[in-house]
Amino acid sequence: MMTRTLRYALWTVAILGMAGYVMLAGHGLLYPQSGDSLDAAVLQQAVNITENRLPLADPAQSPGVALMPVAPFVVSVLVQLFDAQPWEPALVGLLAILLVAALASVVVAKETESVTLGVSAAAFLLMGQRISQGEVVMNCPQSLFLLLALAGCFVLRYTRGIAGTLLASVTIATACFTHPSGLWFAFAAMLHLAVHDKRRAVICALAFAVLVGGGQFAMTRLLGEGFNLHAWQIPARLAWFQPVGLLILLGSQLLGTLGVLTLASVLAFALPVRPWQGAGGLWTWIGFAALGAAMLATQSLAPSPDALPPAIVAFAIVGPISIQRLVKHLSAWPGSSRKAGQNVVLTAIALQFVMLLAHVAPSLPGAAM
Known about the structure:
Layout: H1 2-30, H2 37-50, H3 70-82, H4 87-112, H5 115-127, H6 129-133, H7 140-158, H8 162-176, H9 182-196, H10 198-223, H11 225-238, H12 243-257, H13 259-267, H14 282-297, H15 308-331, H16 338-360
């Protein structure tokens, strides 16, 4: 009875949380944030593409924010169809993050053999977006990068041959030219394969060398100094040691609002089978990559919305998987039962929902302050 009640409660909260995100995101599309400099830059570069001008080619017209070329090319499709509209980058970002949530749900459901945990992971991911930015729709380049990186990792995890390795490499390499944090995920994929499958690791490393290294050379030749300005010079110019930002990320956001998922991910390292080993160990490596990208994003002179979203995506996947592994291990001890273990898993997920709701509720429209 308790298991069924917990399961129904989790499904209800997860569906309401995802529906609420979509509704607020729809409002954001109708009334886009005109002050978003990154989305404005994406839209301007997309207009350049539709007018047969190369994006990022003129350093003198730089918007002052780091931007990679893939997002403007994607948004340019909408510009060609509807002319330049401020909602177009927001729509691309929204569709991308919804697909990220769907992928995360499938991954968790497959790894834990629990649809309930899969749906909860998608809800964690979507509800967590308000933690990072206070806004509903993520910025367009980061949403696309997360989608490409996660899709590449998905292919890498659930395929075995050379073709799957090459497809995953192409997808993750494209993520590197969507957002600089894609490089963290590329290194994570190679490290996972180096531990798990050395033959595929060699193929993946060669593919990344050609795609990322060759792509860097080709875009430098094609786009000129504008590309190097956005890819390297602006991030380097803004880099600055910010211990307070790092402390807020680790102490308030990861150990605070996402505390259940974070703590479960850490405790999983005490299990006899290390979480980075085996085919499923890829998601632990992705967690390392997301944490590294998030920590680096806090070390900037300019306030960055890029810090938390990769970590939210990673912990929304790694957290439920870790909870399931921990409880499964403890349930194998004498005197324990599988049903009691299921109740513990569902209770832990419910506690994480409580923590998220406690953070999100005060920022909802009409909430009493």
